[in-house]
Design brief:
The chain is an alpha/beta fold and 317 residues long. The protein contains 14 helices and eleven strands. The strands form two sheets. A six-stranded mixed sheet has the order 8-7-6-9-11-10, sandwiched between helices. Strands 3-2-1-4-5 form a five-stranded mixed sheet, with helices on both faces.
Length: 317
């Protein structure tokens, strides 16, 4: 079955068209696209999606709609996450996505987002992947408006999370709140890190943190960190997927990127120019997430909520 999934996030709007085997749960990507649309820009301060931000998403969806038609998708699904959940006009925005683009648009609750992300990250994995079977895996999903922590066991497309939490710290939200200099001032970075650390430690129960043996990091911050570490030009998802990021490596990347102007960051090999405004906050979020879980390394995954959405659209699980 061919399905198309659109992830309308706080910072980016992404498309996955894939062939899914409903029996085995295998997801074979056919087409991937991603655009930084910054839908959540201004939501933290104003409480609503702006007309300019929504227009950026609608322009991107017009192209995605053509791709869905060209690839003869049997079903489609659009998942809308933190920015739309938090915005006063989020429901009206979702209705426009349904009506104007013919997408099965769903504003996900925090629980639904966590389950789809975990299923996506664990799909394609076997008992031999990572640490010993039965150990707890935590999926870290750093978004634009929030960061999701999802812990569970058992590989495969039907894996389910035992614990999850969505915490209000994301790359767009934290950048807008703390970074006002270019390059960022040291005190801005210290204040950003301190707030993120407090949010994570308050929101993650000690017993859940202590149980984690393996970390999988998904979404744009983690994949960008891997691409920069590997000096990929152009981006290669096959090399990014499964790349292991040491905490020390992320700390070095933060020091390097925080010392640059935004203009200079746009020239960094492996970093999409549109992520230059928020990547410094992203590195801090990843460092603090790893610190909260006491992880010395994380495995980067190209499989995330898009793959979980593909399984849902195909009726798997």
């Amino acid at each position: 079955m061919r399905v198309g999934v659109v992830d309308i996030g706080t910072n980016s709007t992404r498309l996955l068209i894939a062939d899914v085997d409903p029996a085995s749960g295998a997801v074979v990507p056919v087409l991937r696209r991603s655009e930084v649309t910054r839908l959540g820009s201004g939501v933290d301060a104003g409480g609503s999606l702006t007309d300019v931000a929504m227009a950026r998403v609608f322009d991107t969806l017009a192209g995605y709609r053509k791709a869905l038609d060209e690839h003869d998708c049997d079903r489609n699904l659009a998942v809308l996450t933190s920015a739309v959940r938090d915005a006063a006009n989020g429901a009206a925005f979702a209705e426009r996505v349904r009506e104007d683009f013919g997408l099965d648009a769903r504003v996900l609750s925090g629980d639904e987002e966590a389950q789809l992300t975990f299923r996506g990250a664990m799909s394609g994995r076997s008992d031999g992947d990572g640490r010993a079977a039965g150990e707890t895996t935590a999926v870290i999903d750093i978004g634009g408006g929030s960061t999701e922590f999802i812990a569970g066991r058992g590989p495969g497309p039907r894996a389910s999370a035992g614990f999850h939490v969505s915490l209000p710290a994301g790359v767009v939200r934290m950048s807008e709140r703390h970074i006002h200099s270019d390059p960022p001032a040291p005190e801005e970075l210290q204040q950003l890190a301190a707030e993120v650390r407090a949010i994570f430690l308050e929101g993650l129960p000690p017993e859940e943190r202590a149980a984690v043996a393996l970390g999988i990091a998904v979404a744009g911050t983690a994949t960008s960190a891997a691409a920069i570490d590997l000096e990929l030009e152009p981006y290669d998802p096959d090399r990014v997927h499964g790349h292991r990021l040491l905490l020390g490596t992320v700390e070095m990347l933060l020091a390097r990127l925080a010392g640059m102007t935004e203009s200079d960051r746009r020239q960094v090999v492996g970093l999409h120019p549109d992520r230059a405004p928020t990547i410094v906050a992203g590195m801090i979020l990843l460092i603090e997430a790893m610190g909260a879980l006491e992880l010395d390394e994380v495995e980067v995954s190209e499989r995330d909520i898009l793959h979980g959405g593909a399984l849902l659209a195909a009726g798997v699980g």
